[in-house]
Amino acid sequence: MTALPSPLDVTSRSATADVAQLRAEIDGDLAALAESMRILRFRRNCLAPISGLPNEILTLIFKYFEENERFDGYYYEDTPTCLTVTHVCRHWRNVALECPTLWGFISSSSPFWLDVMLERSKETPLVVTKTTPLPLENCLEKVLSHLSRIEYLEIRSESCDAGHVMDILSSQPAPMLKTFKLLARDGGPLPIGPISGPIFQGQAPLLRDVSVDYCYRSWSSCIFDGLRSLNVTGARLPDLLSALRCMPALELLALESIKSNGTMLFDKVPLARLKSVDLRAASFRTAVPVFAHLALPVDVKISLHLNSIRGPETFSDLFSVIYKHPSGSGPVLRSMRATNFDAKFMAVQFSTSRAIKHYDDDDIRLSVRFTFDLPDVVQPDIVLDIWQIITQQGHQAFFSGELEFIHFDGFTGFILGLTAALRIEESSDVTYPSLRVLELRDMVLHHDELEDLRDVLTMRTRHNLCLQDLRLTLCNNFTAGQEQLFREVVANVDCDQWTLNDGRSSENELP
Fold first, then answer.
1. How many whole angstroms from its chain centre is CA 290?
2. Mean pLDDT, the chain, as a whole number?
3. Which has the closest alpha carbon to 338: 303, 369, 309, 361?
């Protein structure tokens, strides 16, 4: 350590070279102290338990942190998420820089950070999400020049940029691309011309998932022949059908706002491997033509969302066009679950299992969600009508039904419609002969309705059509006395405590 002179010694010397030399010596000592402190801090940090983790474990932690922050949105838009771990210590920084996959998630619109990510990711596959408007030359063109190693590409484009984006995508092949999404940021049509051979130069052998918004041109191509999942919004039906003919391996199909003039165009498109089709449509007018042109396999899951059920077309028109393959029979539906979410929106689901425990059970083959806007029709009646339509012999060949389980949730006035459907008339066939379980949830039950239901169940018991289970949850006006009366005609009556407690306070009790 340098010995410091007294003020007298300093002032007695020349105030030029001597002072400069002393300052240089002091600065050197300070630097040596700082380095010693750094080494000591490093040695102390090495004693922390986390410092003993192998680099492989640290890398996994960094990847988890990056993924969690990226999906939760807890990062600055133009700053790479993984940058945080490089500012903790030198060891962490070195580990992060030696992990190219940590830098392969690119969404920044900053040219500086884009260069950093592309350099540090080296040759690792890239996941790219870009939103225009952005500097096309400095950002989009630069990242798409690495198209040969991009495996996930999502571009949310303004309508005015779509043409230039497609020109870039058509400039080179995409040998590693698995997922491609071209989405309309402003909800308008993307005037990009036909998505055909030139895109990816016709070379995207690993492409399995495609999403496209508001593309009003034909986009069939041989590069889609290995596609497994397709999500299309706003396409014209002829263009869609032309594309589907090039996708024999398609398994998942999601459609929304498909444009159709309602006329039959040509033969049905065979989709032999399709596992699920989800259609969101404004009305039957747009939904019926779509199903009329698809040849569906017998084990496909159908999900339908209708904004309105008003108009000349009905559920009968819809289900009558669903195609049944001649090589096999359609699914046998054994359970129904109907939910009234509010006064206008409801859902009806049908399953091949004997009970529906959850809304997304694997055995659900048909799910219909719709806005109820028919003023002259009672809500529960339309649900039972749907069941009758899809299983009516000689009218609809795709489905058949042996209904064993019914679940109703949140419907008002349901019991009258149910008793009418279950009543046995001498001049007609027996309805719901296989029904064994009836579940009611969140229902307001009235005296006359319950009495009618008990009478109908008694009648069915006399015809050896006994109901095995009656289950009530969160229902009003059902008493312990009523529970005993129903046990005379139903093998098992199961009520939750809420239902019974509410029933005891009700004045409407059966005699």
1. 21
2. 81
3. 369
